[in-house]
Design brief:
Length: about 500
Amino acid sequence: MKQMIEKQNTTTFEAWWNTQPKFRSKAELARAVGTNRVSVRHWISGVTFPRDEYCDKLFEITQLNCFSPSEREAAREEHERMIPAEVKAARSSTYRANAELFRRRALASWRKRRERQRRLVTRAELDELRRDPRKRKNVCRNCGEILQDVGPHLRPAHKLTVAEYKEKWGFLRSRNATRSESTQEKQSAAMKRIRHQPPKWTRSLLPAAQAASLRTNRRGTARLEERLKARGKRLAARPQHWKRLREGDVVTDARIAQMRLASKSVPEIGVAVGLSLAATFNRLRRMGFPPRARVFLHGEPVGWRQFHALCSDFGLAEGEAARRLRMTVGWLGREPKPKRKGESLSPALAKKVVRLRAELLADYRHKPATRDRGGRPKQLAPTERAELPAKYDALRADLKAFRRWLLENPTAPRGAAWTWLCERFRAGAMRTLQFWPQFFAWLQKDYRLDTFRRAAWVPRDVAIQFLAGDYGASENVITYILEHQQANPPES
Ligand SMILES: [Zn+2]
């Protein structure tokens, strides 16, 4: 392998090695740099290029340009470029053959390096800092480590939330309480760069918010926004602060919302639209979407409720349902915690639930309605029949509001409807349409969009037509259930 690699950058290093008088063996140089003999041999022969920390030491010793902080990156790239493709392929196949081992090794050496790099204050300093939360906020009061920002260190190192940490050591609940000076400056510069002005409502609502903050003076309510939220005040979109893309467009709420409805995760959306994770997350949160990627069915995120409905509709024991979803019984054991009752399921699991429901429903529709007397098969499962009237009411109310807007804005350009919808989401309205991506797909595919735009339709009819498609039942059945709520529909 050594012979196959052209020695361009390292020739200077090799030349230096051959002419220098100071080190008598490679082992000696290795000791001075803090590595082993084999690594030094590989560097000299050009098989590998040293990492930054070794480049620092090598530059100190050799004064060679290829190790200097300014030129080492170029030298490393040149080295990478010179490696023949077959060598690269051979290396990656060795890696892949034993990927787990290599990953473990890399992680272990990363941990070792990190452990070496930890800087701690002395015991006396720590005692002093613990008495005064205003000083050196970037030093962890729990362990005395000097950090960039304390926040991200707390959970992995001490299993603490930031709020608990602040309370424990008497910090203010401000966001800056656990940040270093340099992060603080960076943040401030960023705000100045975009000429950030506090939104108008800050001034007008501040007195109210302050009064409210006395009442809602709980953990995690430090920010004005959260205090206002506690009073039921929701924030409107501020497109003037939205990130501008290279083409001059902004990343609209609509774009983010549509990706969320397609069950994309925050990182996926962030990468696709070019926003940071925090910005993506916060905009989704303000629109009232669930904090994580979800799958939506019949106008709500798929959660435990749908799992239980699956069991009761098709007479499955929970263990059997878990088995058919290829989940362990241990997973079921974790399930009934009250905290998780209203929680949604992960997209992967939710998709399995939706698929299993579709399979079971297909069987169910072929069975006679009663075991002894026969009868036509039913189109809808019991929970579907039970939930339908409430879903219809909510959907019809949203459609009414939608239609009103369409009538008031007959000349609205394409996309304006989505902008309006997202504004309504931010105000906590249109919650049914918000979680029903199938409705928008149906509009696109099965409904005449121009008819819809002209608002030449009746909310009741559109709701029934759509529900029939979404539940896979006939319009007659849907209408019958709505007219005879809870009664048994005629099956056609
Ligand atoms: Zn710590």
